Amino acid sequence: MGTVYALASGKGGVGKTTITANLGIALAQRGKKVLLVDADIAMANLSLLLGMHSSPITLHDVLLGESSLQDAIYDGPGGVSFVPSGLSFESYRRVDSSRLTGLIDSVKEEFDYILLDAPAGIETNVMSALSASDNVILVTMPISPSIADVLKTKIVAERLGAKPIGIIVNFVRKEKGEILPEDIMKMLELPIYGLVPYDEEIRKAFMREKIMPTILFKPNAKAIASINEIAEKLTGVSSAEIKKKKKSFITSFLNKLFSIFKRKPKQSSKDDIGEETEEESFDQNELPEISEDSIEIEK
């Protein structure tokens, strides 16, 4: 059975949606079955980042009882599955977010990880997302107002029976006035799962002609390196292991491809008019030997 994680914050603007999208893909790259759910029923920002805001069936339809959750699960970018939220204000006014827990429970057997992009704040839809989760990862910036807000979210989550397990500190600039990681842990009484630096590449994700998570077009960005470290903590699978598997796959594929051409020379034969012909063959010595060490994977 999969584990449900709600990524939650106090107020908006802390980069929670960006963390959810990139972390989900990082988990999928480690061979895990991942479902991302845009639980922000009002805003649907995760749907926008994944480029799936035009999906015909959304979480709105499911919460209204007009469609099944299976009908709202789509293949998302980077190997994740995805349930988009809707953009219709009219349907938003009518949805019953309290049904979310039962819906998520119905698909837990199908995935290793289910990540809920929870709305900001502590209103009803936030409580529904927290209630539907097994664990809560708090996302904050290293400044006192953001930490004070996320502390309230932690208290609400605990009262709802969800388990806050750690903190992701986003937009870290290491500037004077930022709250130090050890102080954040003391204030929230939780371990830090990741310190994600401020990175212009993250901002560019929304400026591209085709919007997509940064991990897909700039996998070596500073922020992505930190997100990969968080994925490693959750799965135990390191980025180095992923690269090794990629090399192994490429090596196997290329060697199979070259083996097609490594044929033994055939004996000469005569055609219908009596002329001798010899079937052409490749010189095996001219074909390169492929090894994992000869393949470079972008970091």
- Figure out the total of helices: 12
CATH superfamily caption of the largest domain: P-loop containing nucleotide triphosphate hydrolases
State the assembly state of the protein chains. Answer: single chain
Main sheet strand line-up: 3-4-2-5-1-6-7-8
Beta fraction of the residues?
Answer: 15-25%
State the secondary-structure class. Answer: alpha/beta
Enumerate the spans where pLDDT stays under 50 for 5 or more consecutive residues: none
Please estimate the helix content. 25-40%
SSE order, one letter for each helix or strand: EHEHHEEHHEHEHEHEHHHHEE
Just give the CATH class of the largest domain: Alpha Beta
DSSP strand count = 10
Number of domains: 2
- Using only C-alpha atoms, the radius of gyration works out to 25 Å
The average pLDDT value, as a whole number, equals: 87
Q: How would a crystallographer describe the biggest sheet?
A: 8 strands, mixed
Shape: globular
CATH architecture of the largest domain: 3-Layer(aba) Sandwich
**What is the CATH topology assignment of the largest domain?**
Rossmann fold
Distance between the termini: 32 Å
